[in-house]
Amino acid sequence: MKIALMDSGIGLLAAAAAVRRLVPEAELVLSSDPDGMPWGPRDTADLTERSLAVAEAAAAHRPDALIVACNTASVHTLPALRARFEPDLPVIGTVPAIKPAAAGGGPIAIWATPATTGSPYQRGLIAEFAGGVEVTEVPCWGLADAVQAADEDAVARAVAAAAALTPPDVRAVVLGCTHYELVAERIRAAVQRPGLPPLVLHGSAGAVAAQALRRTGRAAGARTGAAAYRGAVRVILSGREAALPPAALAYAEGRLLAQGSPALGH
Prior knowledge:
single chain, alpha/beta, Rossmann fold, 2 domains, six-stranded mixed sheet, four-stranded parallel sheet, 10 helices, 16% strand, globular, Glutamate racemase, glutamate racemase activity
């Protein structure tokens, strides 16, 4: 079994790690676009061209499914990707987990990139799934870039700035950018208020991993120990095969993917 994931950068690590936990023996193809980052400011035509190129590089390895592990690409380019690859290659997009967050009651906050915050897309999801729930949209200036660079000080500053914009009584935070899931516990620590129930974080990695397995008709396997993580991982950076970027190994998800992966250096 082979699952491909695409993103502008290392935000795909969270979903890739979720796939690995569900099916340790699955081969993974991680295709990203460091030469074209960031994707957020690009117009739809430019973003579609880059997304298709990143997806083509992954599809060349004949995966069983392609996860678009990027909120921006999912919003703007999913129809083009599906038109190009389906039905032969199932394409799974990433949607902010607003529905399950709102189902737990409010108030909730949605942390997203400045380009996504207040966008018609996000406002549409709020209207559809969070009616009657108090929602605060929080623009996270610089957080995705800081995570991408594994810059601890910049991550701390960006998380603190976003936390300052988050109402103190929120019960849940939606992580509306895949990069944010890599620093989820730092976000929790910054937003959790003393005396309130534990904060619930809602990411998308687990859901998209499970959906990829459903689309391929394969069941998840149980972890049997470190030796079970034996699926090879192939990394493609703007069309070039490479090793995992050093910044990826700063995160637990990246280190998990590096275990027992003979293709990483190829």
